[in-house]
Amino acid sequence: MANRRRLAMSFGVLMLLAGCSTPIEPVKITAVDLSHEVDAKNEPRSARETFAPTSTVHASIATAGGGPATLAARWTDAAGNVLKDESQNINPTRPQRFEFHLKPEGGWTLGRYKVVITLNGKEPRSREFEIR
Question: Any idea of the CA torsion for 55, 56, 61, 62, to the nearest 10 degrees?
Answer without folding.
Answer: -70
